[in-house]
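WARN retry 2 of 3 for item q-0093 after timeout on previous attempt; input resubmitted unchanged.
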Amino acid sequence: MQGFFDNIPHSVIMAGLRRVVADGNILGLVERFLRAGVMDNGVFKPTTVGTPQGGVFSPLLANIALNSLDWWLDEHGLRFVRYADDFVVLCSNHAQAEEAM
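OK item q-0093 returned
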């Protein structure tokens, strides 16, 4: 998934998080983290989409947000390996790979 961390809507992250976290304080903290903004050449820019890269928290949020993708792939009988925005669908032949696409 190209550009996943830069482009994932905050609403998708928060929806996935709400499925596994009930504590409103934690949810609020994560939402503030996502909207904290960045400094670009000394200029503050608000963040409305995406999640900061480089730390351990963003891959965790990606895994939570993409959990529904895991369920969808599994329901369709596809074997796969995924970590954050990187995944591989395992196929035994070309025809199976074409069908998976």
